[in-house]
């Protein structure tokens, strides 16, 4: 089965990506949550351009990506799940869940460490919020993320199918919870007990520090609740809240591909000094839904 997964991994991921992208783009066009400050043509060239650049870079430096490394680790017997005997289905569930926890912890780390925040600001500096925001990351952060993912696979020893499932879910949920859409409130309230919804994650993209440093999850919402980083809603509401980074408001930086690549290296007067260096505000504990 491993050989089949490796042969069709890229095809499966591409089909999933374009299918979810089409659904979310259509949903945003028909029923947007917020009025956008910029048109799609103004932002999407940069957002999709950096996504394509990152994809090519990863395939060049890591030809087999995470799924291929999982097959290598399985063949070598590396990792906890290769050392203990569990039912296959249980190993898959444990692996997907723990990898999601690592993504949550990694996300907290890139907010807490100033040098990493400089990279991560590329994601947060998007002046609008839609499905393309979910894939807008600086190439250096993408490479660091892949190294963390490989280290996690080596330590955990997940089944190959679990890594493929996780990668598909992660990419799909990133587009879903960054969507410029809203679910009916009763459905949103129910769903966010399990997964991160667009209204839940949108809070994380607020310019207000205590809101930016909340709701770090991409898939499972349990980590924010357990770690005390959950915030139910933005103070100004989803329509009134401001998206982005206070110190990065120049459209030449935030909506242009060359600008996105420059952001981590800007001097303080150009946006290098912002709340995460000056203000360590983290969410309060009384915001539960």
UniProtKB/TrEMBL annotation:
Coiled coil: none annotated. Keywords: Membrane, Transmembrane, Transmembrane helix. One of its GO terms (cellular component) is membrane. Residues 93-229 form the Fatty acid hydroxylase domain. It is found in: Membrane. InterPro entries: Fatty_acid_hydroxylase (IPR006694), Sterol_Desaturase_Related (IPR050307). The keyword Chloroplast does not apply. Its main location: membrane. One of its GO terms (molecular function) is oxidoreductase activity. It comes from the Bacteria. It holds the Pfam family FA_hydroxylase. The chain crosses the membrane at residues 12-30, 51-72, 84-105, 146-170. The keyword Amino-acid biosynthesis does not apply. GO terms for biological process: lipid biosynthetic process. PANTHER family: STEROL DESATURASE. This is Fatty acid hydroxylase. It comes from Candidatus Thiodiazotropha endoloripes.
């Amino acid at each position: 089965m491993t050989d089949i997964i490796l042969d069709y991994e890229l095809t499966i991921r591409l089909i999933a990506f374009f299918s979810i992208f089409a659904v979310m783009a259509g949903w945003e066009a028909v029923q947007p949550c917020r009025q956008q400050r910029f048109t799609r043509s103004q932002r999407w060239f940069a957002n999709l351009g950096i996504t394509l650049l990152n994809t090519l870079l990863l395939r060049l430096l890591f030809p087999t990506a995470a799924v291929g490394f999982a097959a290598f680790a399985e063949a070598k017997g590396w990792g906890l799940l290769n050392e203990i005997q569990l039912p296959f289905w249980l190993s898959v569930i444990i692996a997907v869940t723990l990898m999601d926890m690592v993504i949550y912890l990694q996300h907290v780390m890139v907010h807490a460490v100033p040098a990493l925040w400089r990279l991560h600001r590329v994601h947060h500096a998007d002046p609008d919020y839609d499905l393309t925001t979910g894939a807008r990351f600086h190439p250096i952060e993408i490479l660091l993320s892949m190294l963390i993912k490989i280290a996690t696979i080596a330590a955990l020893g997940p089944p190959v199918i679990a890594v493929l499932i996780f990668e598909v879910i992660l990419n799909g949920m990133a587009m879903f919870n960054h969507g410029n859409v809203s679910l009916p409130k009763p459905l949103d309230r129910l769903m966010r007990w399990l997964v991160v919804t667009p209204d839940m994650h949108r809070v994380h993209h607020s310019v207000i520090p205590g809101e930016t440093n909340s709701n770090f999850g991409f898939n499972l919402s349990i980590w924010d609740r357990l770690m005390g980083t959950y915030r139910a809603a933005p103070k100004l509401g989803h329509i009134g809240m401001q998206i982005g980074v206070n110190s990065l408001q120049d459209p030449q930086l935030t909506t242009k591909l060359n600008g996105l690549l420059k952001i981590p290296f800007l001097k303080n007067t150009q946006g290098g000094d912002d709340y995460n260096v000056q203000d360590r505000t983290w969410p309060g504990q009384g915001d539960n839904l």
